[in-house]
Amino acid sequence: MTRMLLGITLLLAAAVAGAQVNIAATTSNMGMLARTIGGDAVQVRVMAPPDRDAHYLEARPSMMATLRRADMVVAVGAELEVGWLPAATRGAANPRVHPGRPGYFEAAAQVSLIDEGQPADRRLGDVHPTGNPHVYFDPPRFALVGEALAERLAELDPARAEDFRARAQAFSEQVAERMPRWQERANSSNGVILYHKDADYLARLLDVEVLGYIEPIPGVPPTARHLRDLVSRMQGRPEGIIAHASYESSRGPGFIQEQLGWEVHALPTNVALDGTAKDYLDLIEAWVAALSG
Amino acid sequence: MTKPGAALLVLALLAGGAQAANEPSLTQLLEKLERLEQRDRERQGQLDALQQELREARQEQAAVTERVIEERRQAAPVEVSQGPHRDPLDRESYRMRARALGDGAVTSGTAFNPAISVIMDGVYAAQSRREIESPEGFEGHDHGHGHGGHGGHGGIERGFNLRETEITFTASIDNYFDALFMLAIEGVSNVEVEEAYLVTNSLPAGWQVKFGRFLSDIGYINKQHLHDWDFVDRPLVSEFLFGDHGVQENGVQVSWVAPTETYTRFGIEVLQGETSGIAQFEGDERFTLVTLLPDFAIDPVTGQPVPVASGPNRIRWRDYLGMSEKSGPRLFTGFVKIAPDLGHDHAIQIGASGGISRSWQNVVTHSSGRVETWDGDAWFAGVDAVYKYDAGRSFGAGNVVLQGEYFYREIDADYASRSFSDFGTLTPTAAGGMEDLFSGTAKQDGFYLQGLYGIAPRWQAGLRTEGLGLRNRTLEPDRANNVFERASTSWRHSGVLTFRPTEFSMLRAQVNYSDFDTDDHGSVWSFLLQYNMSLGVHGAHSF
C-alpha cells in the first residue's frame, strides 16, 4: 500500500514537473525565440514553414490542430499573419490563445515599430497602418521582445520565472556581443535595394541606406515600368547591392542586376523549423554580409 | 620643461633628423601624432554612439516594462472578435476578424464600431436559348420564393445583372459573444437577412455555440457566400436539393473541436425548418378560391345572353388543405469534418453530414382551379471533400484545388389533388374534396466535382462537372398509376477563368454547357461574366 502511494506520488510529481507550456509559434523565428527563452519548460510547434512568405499563407488544418492544444501563441503580429492566424484561431476554438489573453503574444506589440501610422489606403498597396511588422530583422529589438516573452512566460509558469529571465538576458548579451562587428562591417555599404519593406529594420539599425524597393508598392509584384524607373534612378550611383528573401521572385532583382551589374543576394528570412539562437544570429550575419556589399 | 632641456630636445631632434633615414623625421612624428589623435576621436565617437544606444535600449526597456505593467493593470481580458468556427479548408471570407493589439490610439475613437464590409457582385449573361428550364423533377421547389425563377442559374437573367450586394457588420458584443449581421440586397430592391447570429467566444475545451440565423455547416459550399465561390453560380446539387441559399435557417448550432493531432470537428444543429428543398413548410392554412360568375346566362334555345335576376356573382370557396401542423424546430442536422496534417504543402478536409426534417410540404395551384398538395417528411445525407496544394509560388501560381460533394435526399410524402368539375356551385366532385390520393417516396441525388489551377500569378482556371438526379424518382405524380414519376439525369459542365488583380477585386468569365432533362430536351450554352469587389475590412489572402 505504502509502495503504491509512493508510486502514485512519484507519478504525480513527474507529471507536474513535466508540465510544459505548449506554444504555437507562427514563424520559425518566433519558434526559435520561444525555445531560446522557454528552454525545457516549453514545447514549441511552428505553424508557418520558413521558406514561405508568412504574409501570404492560408489557414491550414495543421495550424488549427496546433492552436487547439496550445497554451500560448507566439506571433510576429502587426497584421503580418492577418491572412491566416485569425482564421486558424477560429477553427481551433481555444479561447486561451485569443488576443487579449495572456496566451496571446505578439512581438510587434512589445516594441516600437517603424512606419507606424501610415494612411490606411489600399491604393498604397498592402499597407500596415500599425507599423512595419518585420521586427525580427532588428536583433536588439528582437532581444527586447525576448525579454517581454520571458515576462509573459513567467505569468504562465511562475516557478520558472527566473530561468526565463536569465535566458532572455543571455540572448540579449549574445546580440550585444555581435552588434559592434555588424556595425563595423556595414560601414562599407553603398546602399541596398530591397524587394519588400522587411529588412528595413536591419538597414536602419546599421545605418545602411535603402535605395529603393523591387515592389512598386507593398504586396504588388514589380512592373516593368517601376523597374526601369528604379534603374534610371540608380544610374551613376556607386555600386550597391540587391537583397531579397529566397521565396521572393528573382525576376525583378535579376533585371536590375542585368542593367546595373549589381550583386544580388537571395537570403532566407527565417531560421529552420528547429533553428537555434545561433542560427538566428548567423542568419542576421548573412544579411549583414550582404548589405555590406 | 626647463629651457636647457628644451634646447637639448630640439638639438636632439635636429641631430636625429640629420642623422639617418631610418629615424622618424619631425613631419613623420607629427603625422603619427595626428593619426593617434584621429583614432582617439574616432574611439570617443564610437563610445558616444554605444552610450547613446545603451540609453535608447534602456528607454525602450522601460517602455516595455511600463507596457507589461499596464497590461497587467487592465487585468480584465479584452476579447477580440474571433467569430464562428470554421473548418480548415473553408474559404476565408470577409467575416469576423481580430483587431490587432497595440493600435496606439489615445482614444478608442471609432474602434468600438462594428467592422463593416460591402461586397458588390454583378454578372453579365448570354445564352444560346431564350430560357434554361429547370431540370426534370426539380421544378417545383421555389414556389413563392420571390426569385427570378430561372432554372439552373440562380436567378441570373440575360444581360446585365446587379446580382447581390452584401453588407456585413461584425463585432464583439462582450467577452462572451461575438456577432455578425449580413444583409444581402438582391438586385435593387429585394433585401434579405442572410445571416444574423451570435457566437460564443470563450467556451473552454473546444466548444462553441452559435445561434440566430445562419448558414448550416453541412457539406462544404453550404456555408459559403456567393463571393467565396470559385465559379459564378451555385452547384446544381446545392441549388436544387436544398434551395437558392442552401440550408439557411434560424436555429442553434453546437460544435466541438477535438484536441487531436488530426483536426476533427463535430456539430449538431437544431433548425426551424424552412429550407425549400429539404424542409419546406406550408402549415394548414385555409385555402380560398374565388370564382366570378357572369351576371347573365346563355339561353339554351336562342343562344342569346339573358340577364340573371338575382344570386351572387362572386363565389368564395374556403377549406383547410388538411396539411399536418408541425411547430418548429423541424430540421435537425449533424456534421463531422476531418482534416489530417499533410504538412505545409498539402491539405485535405473530408466531411460527412446529414439531416432529418419532420416536415416537407408543398402546395401548387393551377389556373384550372386544381390544387395539389404534398405532405410528409424528409432526410438527406452527403459527403464532401476538398484538397488543396500550395505550390509556394507567388499569387497562387501553381496552386491546385480539388473539391467535390455528393448529396442524397428522400422525401416521403402523401400526395393529394383536388379539382372541381362544377364551378357554378363549387362543390368538390369527390367526397371530402380529395382525389388522386396516394403516398410515395421521392429519391434524388446530385454531385459536383471541380478542379482549379493557378495558371499564372493571380490567374486561375478551372473545370467543373455536375450531375443532378443520377437517381431521380421525382415528386411529379403519375396520377394514372398513383406513383411518383421517374426522370433521367441532368448534366452541366463548366469552365472558368478568374483574374484577381488584388485580394479585394476579382473578375471572372465562365462557360456553361447545360444538358438538362427538360420537356424539350434541349442543351444550352451560356456565357457569364462576373465582377466581385470588396470594400472595407481587410480580406484574407486566398488563392
Describe the structure.
The complex is a heterodimer of chains A (293) and B (543). Chain A contains 10 helices and 8 strands. Chain A is an alpha/beta fold and 293 residues long. In chain A, the strands form 2 sheets. Chain A has a 4-stranded parallel beta sheet, with helices on both faces. The longest helix of chain A has 26 residues. The radius of gyration of chain A is 21 Å and the shape is globular. Chain B is mainly beta and 543 residues long. Chain B has a single domain, classed as Porin (Beta Barrel), CATH 2.40.160.10. Chain B is 14% helix and 45% strand. In chain B, the strands form 3 sheets. Chain B has a 16-stranded antiparallel beta barrel. The C terminus of chain B is likely disordered. Classes of the chains: A alpha/beta (293), B mainly beta (543). At the A-B interface, helix 3, helix 4 and helix 5 of A face helix 2, strand 6 and strand 13 of B.
Short description:
The complex is a heterodimer of chains A (293) and B (543). Helices cover 44% and strands 12% of the residues of chain A.
The CATH architecture name of the largest domain in chain A reads 3-Layer(aba) Sandwich
Poorly predicted ranges of chain A = 10-17
Task: Characterize the quaternary organization of these chains.
Answer: heterodimer
CATH top level of the largest domain in chain A is Alpha Beta
Number of domains of chain A: 2
Assigned CATH superfamily of the largest domain in chain A: Nitrogenase molybdenum iron protein domain
Note the run of SSEs of chain B as H and E. Answer: HHEEEEEHEEHEEEEEEEEEEEEEE
Which structural class should the secondary elements of chain B be placed in?
mainly beta
Helix content of chain B: 10-25%
Please tell me the overall pLDDT of chain B. Answer: 78
Beta-strand level of the residues of chain A, as a percent range?
5-15%
Total count of strands of chain A: 8
Portion in helices of chain A:
40-55%
What spatial form of chain A do the alpha-carbon principal axes imply?
globular
Can you give the mean pLDDT of chain A?
Answer: 86
Radius of gyration of chain B in whole Å, from Cα? 38 Å
Query: Could you please say which CATH topology of chain B applies here?
Result: Porin
- State the low-pLDDT regions of chain B, or none: 10-21, 73-81, 94-109, 141-153, 423-433, 538-543
